[in-house]
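Researcher: Hi, I'm a grad student and pretty new to this. My advisor asked me to get structures for two proteins we've been looking at. I'm not sure of the right format, so I'll just paste the first sequence and hope you can take it from there.
Model: That works fine. Here's the first sequence with its C-alpha cells right after it:
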Amino acid sequence: MNAQELKAYRIKLFSDVYSGIIPERVPVWDCLTTEYMVQYAGLDLMATQYNYTADLLIEIYEKAREICRGDMPAGGFAHNAAALMFQQSQVMQMGKTGFVQHPERTFMHEDEYDEFIKNPHEFILEKCYPRMYRGYAKGEVHRALNFAKYILATMDSNLAFTVAETTMAERYGLFRRPDGSVGMQLVPFDFIADFYRGFSKIPLDMRRRPEKLLAAMEAIMPYAIWMGRPRVKSHLGCNMIMTHMGAFLNNKDFEKFYWPTFHQVVHIAAEQGQATQIFLEGDWTRFLDYLQDLPQGTQLWMEYGDPQKFKDKLGKKMVLGGFYPMTLLGRAGKQECIDKAKELLDILAPGGNFIFILDKWALNINDIKPENYVAVLEYVVENGKYENAGELVTTARKEDSIHKFSHLYPEFKSKYVQSFDEFKLEYPPVDERVEPLMREAYEKYTALVI
C-alpha cells in the first residue's frame, strides 16, 4: 500500500475500535517519547530541548523510523525548556541529565483552603502562580513580559511539533487524531494534590481537614467542566487523564475523596460528546467495580494489574490497552519479549476493544533494546488480525451508559475569563461586519492563554 492507502487503512483501524466495531487487526501504538528519539538519534538531550524546530524534529523522527512499527506517529508531547525558562518554573524542572521532572513541592498553604474554595481559578492565578513560576513574581511588568515570552516560546514549539508530526503522518500513512479533538481533562483530587498541596501534604488534609478538601474539589468542578469542553467533537478524539493518586489510596479514602468527582468529570466529558482516555497509574485491579460504571467506549490504559480480570469485567464496554511491561524490553531476550506479547494478545484481543500499547513510554535510551521493541511490535501487527472484523463488540447503546451530572454545577465564572459578549461592551465593533471576525480572534487567543 502507498502512504495514502496506509493512512486510510489505519484511520479505519482506530475508527472501528473507537466505534465499538472489531477492526481488521489490533491497532498498535509506538511508545517512544521525543526524549528517547533524541537520544536514539545521537543528539544531546539537554541542548536539543532548547532548540526544537520542525526540520530538526523531522530528522529525529526519520531516524526513529528504523524501529517504529506502530500505526500513529511516535513522540507527541515534549517539555518546552525555553518556555519553562521564561516562567522560571518550580513545577517542572530540568535536572543535570537533561530530563524534566516534577519535584515534590507545595504551593498552597493549609490555611488557604477557604480562599481556594471561594474561587479556585482566581486564587491560583493570584496566589499560586507567583509561587509556582518565579518569573511571574517580580511585579506586573515583569509578569506580563515573561508570560509573553512563555507564550511565544510555546507557540513556536507547538508549531514545530505539529508540522513534524503531520509530515511524518503523511509520509508514512500514520493515523493522527483530528486537530483540536484532544484535550486534557482535569481531575479535582489529582489537580489539588499534584500542583498545590503535594503528595506529602494531601494525606494530612484527608485526616485533618477532610471537609475543606471535599469542598475544594467541588469548587474546582465548574472549572474542570469548562476546561474539558471539546473544541472539535470527533469519535477519534479524546480528553486525556493521567491519574496519579488513585492507586495509592486505601479503598475507603478512594471512595470518599477520589472517585466521586473523577467519576463525574468522565461522564460529563461523555455528555459533551467526548470520550476519555485514562492512564491508570499503578494497579487499579481492586477498583474494577468502580471502573465498570464509566461510560461505554472509555479508553483505559493500564500500567499494572491482572489483564484477565480487566478483560472479563470491562472488555465489552471499555477500550483496553497497556499491561505490557516496558522494562521487559530492556532486560529480557527477544523470545521472552515476544512470548509476553502473545500472552497479552491471547487475553485482550478476542472480541475487539483492544489497542496494543506498552505499560509506559520509553524515556531513557537504556529503557528498551531496539531489537526487542521491533520484534514485539512486528509480532502484534502480524498476529493481531481478526477473522470476524466488522462485527459489533456489543449491542449495548453508549448513550444508555452516560450519567448526567453537568446540571449539578454552576457555570464557570472568573474575573479573568471574560466572554466576547462581555468584552465587546468595553470595546464595541466599529461595524457589524467585523463582529464575527473579532469574536473568532478573541476566542482563539483567549483559549491559547487560558
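Researcher: Oh nice, that was easy. Here's the second one.
Model: And its structure:
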Amino acid sequence: MSFDPIKAPRWLTMASLLALGAAGAIGCATEDGDAAAQGSSDEEAASVEDITQVKHSKVKRQSIGNCWIYAVASWVEALNQAATGTEIDTSESWLTYWHWFEQLANGGASDEISTGGSYGTAADLIVRYGIVLEKDFIATESESEMSGRQSSALAAVNAGLKGGPLKDAVAMRDRAAIRRELDKAWGLDPAVVTKMNRVFGVAVTRTIDRSYVSRRPGYGIMASRELKARLRDPETRQFTTGTIDDALGRSGGGWWAPRSGKLAWNEVNYPGDEAGRREFWKRVQKALHDEQPVVTSWAVDFNALSSASRFSLAELSRRGPGSQGGHMTVMHDYQAEVPGLGLLEAGKPATPAQMDAALSDGTKIEFVRVKNSWGGIRPDRWSEAAIPGYHDLELAYLNGPIKKCGEKPDGTTDTSNCTSQQTPLWDVVLPAGY
C-alpha cells in the first residue's frame, strides 16, 4: 500500500486515513472527506442459493483510522459463523487497545499514536492477546454501531503523550504505568482491568502465544484456537472445522514473508497485466463461491462514491479527484458477465454449473460487493445500497488507474497536487490452496 512512509506495501498509515462521518471522526477510509460441515465435498460446499453471500456479522461504523481491525474482526466473525451457525460480536476496541500498548511500550509513539495497521498486524495481535466479545470489554458499547470510546481514548492518549504521566511512562518504558494510563484513557471498568491483569500481568509479562499454549487464559479472553472456523484443507480439498488459530497461522518474520501454517491465509498482490489479473480473479471467485470472506485492501477516492453506494470510475472522471486514503474491507459477493450464460447477478440464485462457467477466461467481473465499516444507513454519503453498509466496487474503478494526490501539512488530500497515478486495488487475503 503506497501510503507507508517506510514503504511497507500492506500498511495503512495515519497519513492515509480520512475523516468520514458527520462527527468528524478519523477513519482509515471512514468518511467526511479530507481530515460448515466437516468432510463436505467441493460441490456440496458450492451448492448455495446465491453466487457467494458470505455469512457476515452485523455492520459497524469505525470512529478512528482502524479499518484494518474492523475488517479482520469481521473476517474472524464470518469464519466462525460459517462453522457454528452463530453470530458473535468481537471487540475491535480490544485489539485497538493492544495495538496502542505495543506502540507505547516498544517506543513506537512519540507525541501521537498511530491508528494505522495491516492484516498481518491484526493477525499477530490476535495471536498474542486473543479475542474478547464486546460485551466483556466495553459492555456499554455492545449494542452500538459506532464506538465513541475509541475516539475519546485516542484523544486522551494523544494528549497524554504531549505531557503528563503517559509521556513519562513511555520515556521510561514503564509497561505497568503505560497500562494504567491506557486503562484510564479507555475508561475501563475495574473488573475488566483485574481480569486483564490476571491473564497478562500488570506489566504484560505474559502473552497468550507464550504463556497459554496448553491452557485457556479464561476470564472471557479467548485464545484464537478456542474459536471454530470453517476452512478447506488445501491437500484434500475438503472442508473441515478448524480454528481461527489455524487460519491466522504465524508471522513469517516480516511484512514481505508469507504466514506459515497449513491452513494459514495469506495476502496476494494484484497483478499489473491483464492475464495475471484474470487468474487473480479466478482465485477470488473460487474463494467466494465457497463462502470464504476475502479481506480486500484498496485505495479510496470519495469522489468516486455514487449515491447508489458504488465506487465508479465514471463518477470519479465526472467529478475529478477528491478526498483519498487507504482502506480495508471484506468481500461478500460479485457480479459478472459470463460467456454463453449472460449476467450472473450479485445476490441472485446461481447453480454450481453456473458458478463453474463463471470461472472461464472470458468472464468479465463487473463489481465486487464488500462489507464496509462505515455504518449501515448513511444518507449523508449515499442514499441507496443493495445492502445497508455494503459497497459495490466496480472493476473499472479497481483497475484504474486513478490520480493519486499529495497531502497537505494537516494530512488532508491536496487535490491541486495530483501528479501521479495508482491502481486502486492493492491486494486480497486468500485461504490456503486458493
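Researcher: Is there anything I should tell my advisor about the second?
Model: You could mention this: The longest strand covers residues 324-338.
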